[in-house]
Amino acid sequence: MNLQAVNPVARVIALLVFTTPLLVSIDLVSALVSLACTIIGAPILGVSYRVLFRRGLPIVLIAPVSGISMALYGRPEGREYFSVAFAHVTDNSLGLAAAIMVRVLAVGLPVIVLLGTIDPTELGDGLSQILKFPPRFVIGTVAGARLVSLFQRDWEAMRRARRVRGLDGHNRVRRALTMTFGLLVLALRRGTKLATAMEARGFGKDVSRTWARESRWGRAETLLVVACAVAGAMSIIIAVWCGSFRFLGA
């Protein structure tokens, strides 16, 4: 299936029905099933493993952070291995840590697969014509989606500017924090200017609008949503069958 030909609204709905069941239970089995479905389905949907790994590397690096915090401060139950102040490492906290780490991957990687190549204009057409969202919300969504695509370009421009000025030091952590703050400031300034320009051009008025392209919902969209819904439900069913289902970690 070529995701480029699938309506972006269907891809967003498919992501919701696939990942929402993961919020019901915090267990390792359901997260592993969902992660396996993502890895198996990525090539079928036209996303190679190389692209998936390259784009998902930040998520892979962030996942252990959530696991460490859960291992230290999760609800203590079962055998206790060691404790320091408020930190208690027990069987339950380690199980929750493993479940959380896999769950971060199971929720983050589908976003890359389903929404990685989404077109903001087509998304806006679908939101307005299929879901009947108000024009003000749709236009704001399209503008925000387009601004997100500029972050990588801004980051590269800031990196080159710092290198030319001799500010590209050897401390990578400090450099990353400084550039992140600069990127945040740049995004706020650009967002303010864009909001003012859009308001001046009448985008904020509540008037009926026409659309240059027709947004369609066909068999491919229905098939994608149904397949993701079945995969999401299957993860919970298998977790219940294995006896590992834990409602909200209880």
UniProtKB/TrEMBL annotation:
Annotated membrane topology: Multi-pass membrane protein
Keyword Membrane: yes
GO CC term (a single one): plasma membrane
Subcellular location: Membrane
Keywords of this entry: Cell membrane, Membrane, Transmembrane, Transmembrane helix
Principal location class: membrane
TM regions (residue ranges): 12-45, 94-113, 133-151, 223-248
Superkingdom, natural source: Bacteria
Name of the protein in its database record: Cobalt transport protein
